[in-house]
Amino acid sequence: MAVGPESATARPDDTAAGPGDEQLNRVFLTRVLEPGDETGGRWVRELGADAVVRRLRDRGEPLPGASAKRWAGLLARAAHAQPHRDLATAHDAGVRFVLPDTTEWPRQLDDLGDARPLGLWVRGTPDLRMWALRSVAVVGARACTAYGAHMATTLSAGLAERGWIVVSGGAYGVDGAAHRGALASGGATIAVLAGGVDRPYPRGHAGLIARIAEQGLVIGELPPGDHPTPHRFILRNRVIAALTRGTVVVEAAHRSGSLATARAARRLGRHTMGVPGPATSGLSAGVHALLRQDAVLVTDAAEVVELVGDMGDLAPEHKGPVLPRDLLDPAARHVLAALPAHRDAEPQEIARAAQTTPDDAIARLYELRALGYVERHGDGWKLTRQAMISVRDGHTAR
Questions:
Q1: Which of 78, 96, 152, 293 could in theory staple to 174 by disulfide, Cβ–Cβ 3.0 to 4.6 A?
Q2: Considering Cα of 300, then 303, then 305, then 307, what sign does the dihedral take?
Q3: What confidence tens digit (pLDDT) does each residue in 163-201 have?
Q4: Alpha helices in the chain (DSSP H)
C-alpha cells in the first residue's frame, strides 16, 4: 500500500502517528530507528508498530533489549519525528511510501527477517514489486578504472536488452556506469539510495538520479531530507542484495563496500558473481577473492542470465576461430600433422608418424594435395605455404 495525496496532508498535531495508523506509525519509526536495526525490527514484529510508537511517544519504560542510554537516544529522536510532515514533503516530491505486506512490496525483502526495512520510500511510477522480480544488482568500486566502467556499462546494457532490471546504488564509478548502461540501451534501472530519495547523493549524480526517477525507480529507507552516513551505505547494501536475484561485482578492492553486498547476497542464498580483472590490479583484488571462494566468474550479460534466469537461458559457448584445417577429416589431420615442417618426407615416414599404413597415408596425401595443403616432390611430400600458415595459426589458437 502506497501513501497517496489524501494521506499526505499535514495535520495540526504533527508530532506523532495516531493509534492504529500503520502507515504513519512506520513513517514515524523511520525517523527513530536506523535501517537494519534488528532489535527494533523485533519490537515491531512482536509488539506491532503501533505499540512501539506509543511506548516511544509516552516516554514509557524501555523496550526489551534497550539499554537506558539507547532508550534515551531513541526518545530524543522520537520527540522530533513528524510523520505527517514527512508524508507531505514526500508527496510534493512525487515520492510514495510502500509498506510491507502490501501489493507493491517485494516479498523477497522479507528474507532479511528482523532487518527488513520498515517500509520503502519510492520515487518513480513503475511497480516496485513487479520490477524487482526480474532484477540483478551490478555494483563495484567508486574509483573504478576505465576497464571497470566499460564492463559495468556493457554488462548492464546487455542485461537491460534481455529484459532484466539493473539495480545499483547510484554512486560514482561502477554504480553510475551500470545505471547509464541500462538507460542508454532503453532499459530499466533502480537506484537504491542511502539517504532520502528526494535529495540525490552524490550531488554530482543529481541529473542521473533524476533521469532514473523519470525512467525507472529511486528507492530508500530513510525519510525525506535525511542524509547518508558511512554505516548507512553498508546497511543499504543488504537491500540491494535482498531485492535482486543475484549480485555482480565488477571491480572491488579488498575493503570495498560493494563486497558487503556480495556477502549479504551469499547469506540470503542469492547468486554471487564477479567480473575478473588484471591480477596486478588492486581494484580487482576483492573480486578475485570472491571468485576464490564461491562466486561465479562472469564476463558478459549472457553468462549472468544463464545463472539467474530461467531454465534454458543458456549463454553461447565461447570458442576460438574455426580454422580451415579444423574442417578436415580426423585421419587427414593426423597425416597433415605428421609431415615435417621444413623438408619433404616419403609416405613410409609419414605413415609411421601418423600411426597408419603407407597406403592410407598416400590416399590422405592425395586428398590434402587436392585441398592445397601438400605438394609432391619426386617420391616425397612437402607442406605447401598454405599448410605452413594453417599449422602456425593452429598453434597460436591453442
A1: 152
A2: negative
A3: 999 999 999 999 999 999 999 999 999 999 999 999 989
A4: 22-30, 38-47, 49-57, 68-79, 83-92, 128-132, 146-161, 174-184, 206-215, 230-243, 258-267, 285-292, 301-308, 330-338, 347-354, 358-370, 385-397
User: What's the rounded Cα separation, in Å, for the pair 351 and 180?
Assistant: 61
Measure the CA–CA gap between 224 and 175, rounded to whole angstroms: 22
Supply 319's cell numbers: 570458442
Residue 383 belongs to what H/E stretch?
strand 380-383
CB atoms within 10 A of CB 126: 15
pLDDT tens profile 262-320 = 999 999 999 999 999 999 999 999 999 999 998 999 999 999 999 998 644 555 666 65
Q: Are 170 and 177 in contact (CB under 8 A)?
A: no
Cell digits of residue 209: 538520479
What whole-number distance in Å separates Cα of residue 377 and Cα of residue 282?
59
Reduced to 3 states (helix: H, G, I; strand: E, B; else coil), residue 16 is coil
Vertex 23 angle, CA 19 and 24, to 5°: 55
> In angstroms, rounded to a whole number, what is the distance separating the alpha carbons of residues 225 and 234?
19
Cα separation, 339 vs 354, in Å, equals 9
Residues 6+ apart with CB under 8 A from 311: none
The CA radius of gyration of the chain, in Å to the nearest whole number, is: 31
Residues 122 and 307: their CA atoms lie apart, in Å, by: 29
Contacts of 208 (CB under 8 A, 6+ apart): 170, 176, 179, 180
- Residue 15 near residue 81, CB atoms below 8 Å: yes
SS3 category, 53 = helix
- Full-prediction pTM beyond 0.85? no
Check: CB of residue 115 under 8 Å from CB of residue 145: no
In the chain the domains, ranked by start, together with CATH numbers, are: 6-92 (no CATH), 124-308 (3.40.50.450), 324-397 (1.10.10.10)
Q: Give me the residues paired with residue 109 across strands.
A: none
CA-nearest of 267, 234, 227, 262 to 247 is 262
Beta strands 120-123 and 95-98, pairing class: antiparallel
Rounded to the nearest 10 degrees, the angle between the axes of helix 330-338 and helix 358-370 is: 100
| 139 DSSP β-pair partners | 249
Asked if residue 223 has a cis previous peptide bond (ω within 30° of 0), the answer is no
257: amino acid identity, one letter: G
